[in-house]
Request: fold
Amino acid sequence: MKHLLSIEELDELDMSRILTLAPKIKRKRGISPALKGQSWGLIFTKSSTRTRVSFQVGIRELGGESLFLSNNEIQLGRGESIADTARVLSRFMHGVIIRTFAQDDLREFAKWGTIPVVNALTDEEHPCQILADLFTISEKRGAVPGKKIAFIGDGACNVCRSWLFAAAKLGFELSVGAPSGYQPDDETVARVRKAAGRKAKFKLTITEDCKEAANNADVLYTDVWVSMGKEGESAQRMKELAGYQINRGLLQAAKKNALVMHCLPAYRGKEITEDVFEAHAKDIFDQAENRLHVQKAILTLLSKQGRKGS
Ligand code: CP
Ligand code: NVA
Reply:
């Protein structure tokens, strides 16, 4: 594995390697030498609690050093090109983890740099989140293929988009309950269906009826209604997404022991009610913790790539 740019581009074998290694890393939590002597940079243009901290702690636990490079504090924020930044950082570092807006900026960095690039969230995808979520589901409910995952809320967001490609790669049922205007676009859906090929357990439903989406689901999943960068649409989103909430009523439609998941941060009373969130808090925070273990698995596999020189 050279980079982790998206779930769409992730090789199925690499996905399975990550999901096999993560539980082993979790069982043997502690310092290991996979990144010994390595320096990894985190270039973040958007806010982060979980991704930033879990990557920095994970790099340290793997014996490496991390440098947090806020976009505003490096010359990138003053107009230095991505191509030049990538070529410079490739002379110093062993890998970079980037959180930004445009997916193409990640591709540009990967094109010009000679070190692994990890997507820590873009407007298009959040692959590390979904890999941790897949690990969480398998840990708590067994094999993901054969399960029904219902995504409720902003079905056009980065997290849902990564879910779509995960369903295609692994072969499971994904049902998106989202209002029109917040559903995955046709081009993405076509790409997902093509990627799924003939996988027997793959099924994709997109509906405005969240009860239908949640019906008999093994997992109810949600994300914020207002993703980073969409703050200007806040009022409109609150209105249009108002019915697309995980609450007690919706839980009735799902399987009795359905897992409730949230990538966090959570806004109670918006995408999820306080009571449902708190009733499922243990699982939700286990899900958050798994970011660390999965990302350590990703870094371990990428570190084998290391520096190739300029
Ligand atoms: N879920 C997630 O990526 O959280 P942060 O934005 O806090 O990193
Ligand atoms: N869809 C959200 C995910 C936050 C982790 C966002 O992009 O803000």
About this structure: Residues 121, 157-159, 223-224, 227-228, 263 surround norvaline (ligand 2) (CB under 6 Å). The longest helix spans residues 281-303. The chain has a mean pLDDT of 96. Residues 39 and 92 are 8 Å apart (CA to CA).
